[in-house]
Design goal:
43% helix; globular; alpha/beta; 8-stranded parallel β-sheet; 316 residues
Length: 316
């Protein structure tokens, strides 16, 4: 399957039962719902989908379900988080055997501490690529969320890893976004530059983004597919109009503490009748009734919910 990353790649949520187990029926329904918006790919088992909180067998099962539902028409990008190289290689091979089309390679704890020798992340990514031959998406994530900001030399060397096809830049910092964009494009012009910055989605495309791999894509997916299509085609007035409608919602979903965005996203999807429950896996916490009311109002403003629907009700 051809991998075209020039558009929206939603990082999907994981529907759960009351006892925080995978809701397989709900997952199938949700995956079909997101796929109907015709995104470029789906990112499965990343932070939005609580991938780090799943048992290894659960991650494989989630991938299997997503692939069964849409894997013949929409590429599946699997989140790859590990602690050391051999573990990452073993997991990557399992994901490949399941049938995924690409890997989003998460930063690892071994990157922590300055200076970071470029050889460490380069060898890590090269080992994964050599073992699987799958397309790899680099992931620059702000340190406050457990990631690392790569130096230009490191980025240049990572871009030369054969299997690397794209980078997700999620520093949540506009100046760094531009610096990373310029460094990546100088190193390899065909490396697809994806924004991971939910706090400035539309602006990312004015600054050089070619696609978006974002958690906010799990909700209001169709509007974001349209927004990005308009932005990439230079129809900026239409893109801005959509972003203005969505801004209150993205602000509520990603309000401090940002870790609650998973539960907030599920709450929004429950109000829309897309999910049955807001359940997140401990230690993640449920949100307050005040948060739900603010999300409800933002959904209405975004045109994603009927004004008559109250908190705790689902849109028909």
């Amino acid at each position: 399957m051809k991998l075209d990353l020039g558009g929206l790649i939603p990082a999907t949520v994981l529907p759960m039962t009351e006892d925080a187990r995978i809701d397989e029926h709900g997952l199938r329904k949700y995956i079909r719902h997101v796929a109907n918006a015709e995104p470029k790919a789906l990112a499965i088992n990343v932070d939005t989908g609580e991938g780090p909180h799943l048992w290894p067998k659960e991650r494989i099962r989630v991938l299997e379900i997503a692939l069964e539902e849409v894997g013949d028409r929409i590429p599946i990008v699997a989140g790859l988080g590990a602690q050391f190289t051999d573990q990452a290689v073993a997991l990557a091979r399992e994901f490949k055997d399941a049938g995924v089309h690409a890997l989003l390679v998460f930063p690892i704890s071994a990157y922590q501490g300055l200076p970071l020798d470029p050889e460490l992340p380069v060898r890590y990514h090269a080992a994964i690529g050599d073992a699987t031959g799958l397309p790899l998406i680099l992931f620059q994530l702000q340190p406050a969320l457990g990631g690392v900001n790569f130096e230009p030399e490191t980025l240049a060397r990572l871009c030369r890893v054969t299997e690397v096809v794209a980078i997700k830049e999620a520093s949540f910092d506009r100046d760094r976004f531009v610096e990373v964009h310029d460094a990546v494009k100088a190193a390899r012009s065909d490396c697809v530059f994806l924004t991971g910055n939910d706090n400035f989605i539309y602006e990312s495309f004015l600054l050089g983004a070619e696609g978006a791999l974002i958690g906010f894509g799990a909700v209001a997916t169709k509007q974001q597919v349209d927004l990005i299509a308009h932005a990439l085609a230079g129809r900026h007035e239409q893109a801005r109009e959509i972003m203005e409608r969505l801004t209150p919602l993205v602000d509520e979903i990603f309000a401090p503490p940002v870790r609650n965005y998973r539960a907030r996203t599920k709450a929004a999807l429950v109000m829309q009748g897309i999910l049955d429950l807001e359940t997140v896996r401990p230690p993640l916490l449920a949100i307050s009734s005040g948060e739900r009311e603010r999300i409800r109002k933002a959904l209405i403003f975004a045109g994603e919910l009927d004004e008559k629907v109250g908190v705790g009700e689902a849109s028909s």
